[in-house]
Amino acid sequence: MYYYIYDSFLTDKKYERVIASVETRLTDLGISGKIGRLTPFTNAKGLIRDETRRGVQTIVVVGNDETIAKVVEGIGDTKLTLGIIPIGTPVSIAHSLGIPEGAEACDVLSKRLTQKIDLGMVNGRYFLSQVCFAGDNVSLESDGKFRLTMLAEECEVTISNLRSVVADDGAGHTAGDPMDGWLDALITPRTVGLKNVFQRRADKVPSVIPIRRMSVTAAEPFAVIADGREFMNDTLSIEVVPEKLKIITGRERMFA
Amino acid sequence: MFQKSTMSPRENGNEPETIIAPSVKVEGDFVSEGNVVIEGMVEGSLRTSRDLRVGERARISADVGAANAVVAGEIRGNIVISERLELEPTAKIYGDVKTKVFIVSSGASVNGRISMDETEERSVKSSRVEKGKHSEPVLEKEEALAHEEKPKVINTFFTR
Q1: A151 and B32: CB-CB below 8 Å?
Q2: B19 near A CB under 8 A
Q3: So what's the architecture of A2-112 in CATH?
Q4: Complex-level ipTM
Q5: Could you read off the pLDDT of B17-67 as tens digits, one per residue?
Q6: Which has the closest alpha carbon to A33: A65, A11, A10, A62?
């Protein structure tokens, strides 16, 4: 039994055609189901809780990365399976999971290749893809074992769970395997203007450090983006929750 | 059925799992289960059960342990490598070295004691391997005599 959660932006006229084709394809494949819509007055957690009581076993997110973030936060502590139909932008999470956009995603959904993947947790909230923040004036400590100090004036820190390409150094370095029980901390020096032109290529290569738990502290609150959702805090407690989410993936996924 | 048959370079062990770039300094006990590339600074201790590469600009003030290692930078601390240690021409080691196979390029320098046997402690005193010269390890005289009953070929290679 499938339950589809549509994001509020899908009411826009420009998505009418793609929604219609998705719904037709779902009916053809015999996997159509009840539809719930996110609005400013309904959250994903509430919708999921109500439908779980009615026996729903698969929740399908229809929307972009931010929609997935909202649903993952609500689905984290249940044993439900998550499916995705990517529509809108950005859809990088679906891309990492090997799920094509629009109606083609329905075929991936019907094949139902499921995998148990890790989730990340930042300050008690689940995230699927990554957490980003500026690395200036913050202190990073991993599991109380080692401390990371940034020598570059400005840098960006990304704690990644899903695989993504991290360096344009030609070597095609990737980071973030959601099935290895680790998160990857990527520290990328950020340079602008002339400094960027004259900086050596080696200096632009990001550090990639596998972590299980990390604490981030700063003297003042700083901006954090978790799966596309922004919040402010002066302390972050980040950890991996292994094999937490059962998810439907495509064959073109960026991990095993 | 659901698993991909081909493994990614990272899973094959061909791709480093940890990269400490020049813009980062690590302080404390750094323990890894995968391949490690160090281009930045490390202070404390550094251990991996797999391969280690220390880049030319890397500065390590730590005891180091790995299965295999290629060193082009500077290490101040003791090094224990369970298989093969290779020093590139720019490598500078200030500390004791313990390994099975030791390859030193001309220009590399080792300031410390070198041990290359797990059971019998056999040490080679090496100060500086001069640039352009083909050097050979010199056994300490007393220790060489003590082990004379069973002469053994030391598994060491020097390359230009």
Answers
A1: no
A2: yes
A3: 3-Layer(aba) Sandwich (3.40)
A4: 0.81
A5: 899 999 899 999 999 988 999 999 999 999 999 999 999 999 999 999 999
A6: A62
